Structure formats: C-alpha cells, structure tokens
C-alpha cells in the first residue's frame, strides 16, 4: 500500500500516521521527524535544516529530494510506505513521481486531511511532542501522565516552531507552496479528501476506509 498523508501543519498527519503504520505494517516516513532527528544529532544536514525550520520556512527542495530518495529505496519500503510531510512543493512532487517510477511503487492515494485555520492554530499551539515521534495535545489529546510520553516515558517538549508567530508563518508557507499540490494530485486522479475535524478515532476510521481499498 503506497500512501501519502497530506494536509496543513497541525491537521493530524503524524497522529494518524503512527497508528496507520502499526495497523497496516508499513513504514511511517515523516520528513519532519527525520529532519528533527538530524538537528538533535547535530549532523551537517541538521545544521543546515535548522535555520529554515526555526523560521517556519521550507528546507530547500534538493535537500528533501535526496533525503526521500534514500529513504524510499530502503528495504522496509518493499511492501509499501506511508509518507507524512512530503511532498510539500511541486518540484518535490515531480521528483517523487520519478523516484516512484524507478522503484515501481506509484502512489495509490494522496489522503488530504482538511481542518480550518482556526482549529490548526489551536492544535499547534497546544501540541506537545516527544523525540520518539509521538505527539500529544494539552487539551485534545493529553498524555496519561502530565508531560510524559505514553509510548516511551520520555519528557515531552514544545517544538520551537509551535510558537504563535512561527505557526502563522508555517500556515502562510503552506498556502503558498504546498496547497497547490491538492490540484496536482486531483488532476492525477488519486486525491481523497477527509474531514479532519472529528476526534482522532473518527478521523482514523475514515482514513482506514480509504486505505482498505488498497490492501
Ligand atoms: P501534523 O503532523 O499534521 O502537523 P499532529 O498529528 O502533530 O499534526 O497534530 C497536531 C496537534 O493536534 C497535536 O497536538 C495532536 O495531538 C492534535 N490532534 C491531532 N488530531 C486531532 C484531532 N482529530 N482532534 C483534536 N486534536 C488533534
Ligand atoms: P508539521 O507536523 O507541523 O506539518 P513537520 O514536522 O512535517 O511539520 O515539518 C517541520 C518543518 O520541517 C517544516 O516547517 C519544514 O521546515 C521542514 N520540513 C519537513 N518536511 C519538509 C519538506 N517536505 N520540504 C521542506 N521542508 C520540510
Ligand atoms: Zn516518546
């Protein structure tokens, strides 16, 4: 099953992808998680990416295209993959099409999770993240123990880019550079829109209905 989860920052891609990856046994490929791991480890890639991430800007396409090519040619992608946060620009989508052609794993569907801007700001400003990739919300999806990850027991933190000014910038960047991909994939005939405003479990059930068509 070859799927991309699409949607603005805060739509719930990471939250849904974690569970979908378990249910369907396909790797969750989050470019944001990969970049943050590089920032934490102080790699050359991380040092370069951080300047953009802190400002709410996109990391340059050539960096992301190299990264995603590497990841998708990994052996764990043989049975499929679940992309989260890639592609975010038209050049990234074009490069993805080429890579997927080379490895004979074209996308089955691009699942677009729709949430209003007001709700996105509430979600992002209350998000608490864990280095393991889990994310929570102080009101909508709190961890069992305050400030502690259910999955791994580590301390939760607030991402630097989840501060109000950077959130506004990320939404603006989404509207300008990423949103055009909705038409791009609609024209390709593989776009599926999902209402992302319900509770986590309701959105999950709707996404599963789509994914089950490709099992
Ligand atoms: P994305 O990966 O698309 O940026 P996340 O999955 O990290 O989004 O979710 C953003 C925030 O919204 C997190 O704090 C998460 O706990 C919360 N959240 C996710 N899905 C829902 C939902 N259906 N209803 C309310 N809050 C949600
Ligand atoms: P969110 O969960 O809020 O959608 P991500 O974790 O996916 O955010 O991404 C965080 C940041 O990492 C982005 O604001 C951007 O700077 C960088 N990033 C992640 N994926 C990409 C991508 N495909 N292209 C460019 N930059 C990216
Ligand atoms: Zn954790």
UniProtKB/TrEMBL annotation:
Annotated compartments: Cytoplasm
Broad class of the protein's primary localization: cytoplasm
Keyword terms: ATP-binding, Cytoplasm, Kinase, Metal-binding, Nucleotide biosynthesis, Nucleotide-binding, Transferase, Zinc
Top enzyme category: transferase
GO biological process: AMP salvage
Binding-site residues, ATP: 10-15, 127, 135-136, 198
Domain of life: Archaea
Pathway assignment: Purine metabolism; AMP biosynthesis via salvage pathway; AMP from ADP: step 1/1
A GO molecular-function annotation: AMP kinase activity
EC number(s) recorded for this UniProt protein: 2.7.4.3
Sites where the protein binds AMP: 31, 36, 57-59, 85-88, 92, 159, 170
Binding site for Zn(2+): 130, 132, 149, 152
CC annotations in GO: cytoplasm
Catalytic activities: AMP + ATP = 2 ADP
CDD domains named among the record's database cross-references: ADK
Residue ranges, annotated region (NMP): 30-59
Domain Adenylate kinase active site lid: start-end pairs: 127-161
Reported function: Catalyzes the reversible transfer of the terminal phosphate group between ATP and AMP. Plays an important role in cellular energy homeostasis and in adenine nucleotide metabolism.
Family classification: Belongs to the adenylate kinase family.
Quaternary structure note: Monomer.
UniProt domain comment: Consists of three domains, a large central CORE domain and two small peripheral domains, NMPbind and LID, which undergo movements during catalysis. The LID domain closes over the site of phosphoryl transfer upon ATP binding. Assembling and dissambling the active center during each catalytic cycle provides an effective means to prevent ATP hydrolysis. Some bacteria have evolved a zinc-coordinating structure that stabilizes the LID domain.
Name this protein carries in UniProt: Adenylate kinase
Annotated source species: Methanolobus tindarius DSM 2278
Gene name for this UniProt entry: adk
